[in-house]
Amino acid sequence: MIKVYREKDYAAMSRRAADIIAAEIILRPDCILGLATGSTPIGTYENLVEKYQAGELDFAKVRTFNLDEYVGLTPDNDQSYHYFMKDHLFSHVNIDMDNTHVPDGAAADLDAACKAYDAAMIAAGGTDIQLLGLGQNGHVGFNEPADAFPTGTHIVELTQSTIEANSRLFDDISEVPTRAITMGIMNIFLAKKILLVANGPKKADAVKKMLYGPVTPDVPASILQLHPDVTVVVDEEALPEMK
Ligand code: F6R
User: Fold this and answer.
1) How far, in Å, from the CA of 9 to the mean position of ligand 1?
2) Is residue 242 part of a domain?
3) Which of 14, 181, 210, 226 has its CA 20 to 30 A from that of 149?
């Protein structure tokens, strides 16, 4: 079942998403959050940091699993998702860094890193709430359009459209890594709740296909239609008309 909140703009979308995550942390102080990077959740993290600073949230017992990481980037690289998470959330709240998990894109043995990530997530019992962004091509995590839905954590070759979309954050497109390590659909579906955020006109096509199109690995986010508890928070530009 997918519940949709259609908010006026990015700020309202971010407030709504942060409220949903904050409620989870308040109700269950040792909850497990699945986290995403990219531009979309930055406002959500800003709101969570503000709530923490206002004394409304305590991250001391919160555990986290991030969706993905570029292959070949070490955590100190400012383009890595490890760095992003510290920059936007972890450094600003009282989270215990030992309780945070981000796939190891710099591992010498990437297959072993994938297996270890799956094992850690399964041992934890999956996440309580998984935050997702949405790729313009309908990807979630870095599960790109494909012939079948990938299951566990795996290595992907990024599509040209994803490399181009992400190049805005690099000095030159040639610096964008071409591979990533990402949770698969199995990992995402371990979540008790899923929260997807999307804003802006560039996401409108993917949002429409995710919500109303057929479930197909060609639009990886469409499989969310089969999860029992999904909340999608969009701005008006990402969902110009409700069906
Ligand atoms: C990031 C991730 C990706 C992004 C997606 C949208 O951890 O898993 O699926 O959520 O590429 O990125 P933005 O928000 O930058 O448009």
Assistant:
1) 18
2) no
3) 14
Please indicate whether residue 105, judged by its CB atom, sits closer than 6 Å to ligand 1: no
Is residue 176 within 8 Å of 201, Cβ to Cβ? no
Cβ–ligand 1 distance for 141 under 6 Å, the answer yes
DSSP helix, strand, coil percent of the chain (3-state; round to 5): 40, 20, 40
User: Is residue 37 within 6 Å of ligand 1 at its C-beta?
Assistant: yes
**What CATH number is attached to the domain comprising 161?**
3.40.50.1360
Q: Whose CA is nearest to atom 5 of ligand 1?
A: 135
Domain count, the chain: 1
Q: Which atom of ligand 1 is nearest to the CA of 37?
A: 7
In a domain, 240, yes or no: no
The answer to whether residue 29 sits within a structural domain is yes
| pLDDT-flagged residues of the chain (< 50) | none
Catalytic site positions: 68, 137, 139, 144
Tokens of 202: 């560039």
Please write the tens of the pLDDT for every residue from 65-77. 999 999 999 999 9
Residue 124 maps to a domain: yes
Q: Is 44 in the pocket of ligand 1 (CB under 6 A)?
A: no
Check residue 241 and give its pLDDT.
83
Q: Residue 35's domain spans which residues?
A: 2-178+204-228
